[in-house]
Design goal:
The structure is a homodimer.
Chain A (H helix, E strand, L loop, with lengths): L2 H8 L7 E7 L2 E7 L2 E5 L4 E7 L3 H9 L1 E6 L5 H7 L15 E3 L6 E3 L4 E13 L2 E13 L8 H4 L6
Antiparallel strand pairs in A: 1-2, 1-5, 3-4, 4-9, 5-8, 6-7, 8-9
């Protein structure tokens, strides 16, 4: 395979950049995630790929629930903060305001445009990530705005 | 669940819009697809959700291979053509130029920016769609350009 071509084409793909959060003990944990898509209308379902050796993976396996927070254009710094590794930055959520979601106590970020609360259905190992499928069980709109995209941030998580 | 809020938030999500193609007898079949993401770096893998009762689903189950063609900004009309249902428009690929991909003879569209050829690994039913995971086995860059997004087209396939 032409690995350079592969990277070039995969970097043409279009992604949003979301704050994906889960309950973590009495607190909450969050990551920046872009490998995420709706995968069913009825029932409404999403799929998300999470790093196989990550703290988020352990929390999803433990609690089976997460929230996808839609970030707003301009929130690059917040996305970057959430994109830090848990191992090196275990307190990365400390200065981020949130409240627990209604059904699963996953963090809803105060500054998000909106959120969907999801319960994990199945997980499938995909190479160096775990692909979770999940059903949307609750949702809320916080305000209007334009969603953040991976392209806007200049971050790279593809290829 | 607040169904209106759910639709509103899911419609904030960001997607590309791709031409996904597969071998179909001596010819080729194509759809417009946006529920698609990379899901692993090593090995390079994608996941794509395809309608459960679609012709593409039958082809993926039969051949286990597809190509993702990255469309260019401005190719809304082509995406709309590929978005037509196979049942009502079985000849929708007739006027679209393509050549077979090197390993699996899936259509590479001449006007695409680039393409990745994929072999299906696993499939998982997700509500009204089937989620396929696949390994990228070949790729090619055709030219430079800005990728088409679902937002640009104004099409809706989410919520």
């Amino acid at each position: 395979m032409d690995a350079t071509a592969r990277k070039t084409v995969l970097r043409m793909f279009t992604y949003g950049l979301y704050a994906v959060t889960a309950k973590d003990g009495e607190g909450g944990h969050g990551i920046a995630a872009n490998w995420l898509s709706q995968v069913s209308f009825e029932p409404p379902m999403l799929a998300i790929a999470v790093e196989g050796d990550s703290h988020m993976r352990r929390l999803l396996d433990m609690h089976g629930a997460f929230v996808v927070n839609v970030l707003e254009s301009g929130q690059r710094e917040l996305a970057g903060q959430l994109g830090k590794t848990f191992a090196k930055h275990p307190e990365k959520m400390r200065d981020i305001l949130w409240k627990p979601s209604p059904l699963t106590a996953s963090p809803i970020l105060t500054v998000a445009l909106g959120w969907v609360e999801c319960r994990v259905r199945e997980e499938l190992p995909t190479g160096d990530h775990i692909l979770y499928t999940a059903e949307v069980v609750e949702a809320g709109v916080l305000r209007e705005g334009v969603a953040l995209t991976l392209k806007e941030t200049g971050f790279r998580y593809f290829g």
